[in-house]
Specification:
The protein has about 240 residues and is an alpha/beta fold. It has two domains: about 150 residues, Alpha/beta knot (3-Layer(aba) Sandwich); about 70 residues, Trp Operon Repressor, Chain A (Orthogonal Bundle), CATH 1.10.1270. About 30% of the residues lie in helices and about 20% in strands. The protein has eight helices and nine strands. A five-stranded parallel beta sheet has the order 2-1-6-5-7, sandwiched between helices. Helix 3 packs across helix 5 and helix 7 packs across helix 8. The protein is elongated and about 70 Å long. Bound molecules: S-adenosylmethionine. S-adenosylmethionine binds next to strand 5 and helix 5.
């Protein structure tokens, strides 16, 4: 396998479950890119930095309430073991929402350290002391930060040089121009579905007329965005003014 000559995009993962990585990132395009050193990762097992026979990484919350909180002293030891932490991120449902603009920014940041929370989360003092940036992957609660870190990394890795065959692809995708992507069609041009209904494709796509295809796609993107994501549509209209 031909190795990349440039320094890989690198992610340090602070986690209690190192065996969850690379997970799906070891497959397909991201897996091949990992093999070619386009990106690299290192898991730091937080539990390795806990003291005592029980290697305790969490404790009950001050003020009472359900669940356990991850201890700041243990996580700090794990964090300080990293020589070059780069940009420090804590995956958290109360963080800044992850979107394509933030992904593009993270993909051009050479080194990230991602803290994956568990239980009720992490002691606030650790986040404050080390200026962690909180990032959320959506308005729902996962049981841990590892799947969220994998989603963030997946979206970044596909933007790295040499990962996607067709370089033009990311510029045409959903969100890259503030709109959702237009619908796709492939062979067969005439397809009868399981209910016996014949389904054809829009004529313009086989017209060979590139300008018309481009305008049809833009029109479809605009219709879909207006129907499905009025928040994006409003932003798009404002930027056009
Ligand atoms: N008590 C926390 C709350 O209500 O905000 C939820 C803790 S959750 C059970 C455990 C960990 O999963 C979090 O510390 C965080 O690292 C991760 N997590 C859960 N949902 C997430 C989301 N939407 N985005 C990013 N990380 C998330």
């Amino acid at each position: 396998m031909k190795k990349s000559k440039t320094k890989p995009w690198h992610v340090n993962l602070l986690t209690l479950f190192p065996e969850m990585f690379p997970g799906s990132l070891g497959q397909s395009l991201s897996g091949k890119a990992l093999g070619k050193d386009v990106w690299s990762y290192e898991c730091i097992n937080i539990r390795d930095f806990a003291g005592g026979v029980h290697k305790c990484v969490d404790d009950t919350p001050f003020g009472g309430g359900a669940g356990m909180v991850m201890r700041p002293d243990v996580i700090e030891k794990a964090l300080l073991s990293i020589k070059q932490p780069g940009r420090k991120i804590y995956m958290s449902p109360r963080g800044k929402p992850l979107n394509q603009a933030l992904i593009e920014d993270l993909a051009t940041t050479p080194t990230l350290t991602i803290l994956c929370g568990r239980y009720e989360g992490v002691d606030q003092r650790l986040l404050d002391a080390h200026n962690f940036e909180e990032i959320s992957i959506g308005d729902y609660v996962l049981s841990g930060g590892e799947p969220a870190a994998i989603i963030l990394m997946d979206a970044c890795i596909r933007l790295l040089d040499g990962v996607m065959g067709n370089k033009a692809t990311p510029d045409e995708e959903s969100f890259s121009n503030g709109l959702l992507e237009y619908p796709h069609y492939t062979r067969p041009a005439q397809w009868t579905d399981a209910n016996g209904q014949l389904r054809t494709i829009p004529e313009v796509l086989i017209s060979g007329h590139h300008k018309n295809i481009e305008s049809w796609r833009l029109e479809q993107s605009e219709i879909l965005t207006r129907e499905r994501r009025y928040d994006l549509w409003k932003k798009h209209m404002k930027n056009r003014q």
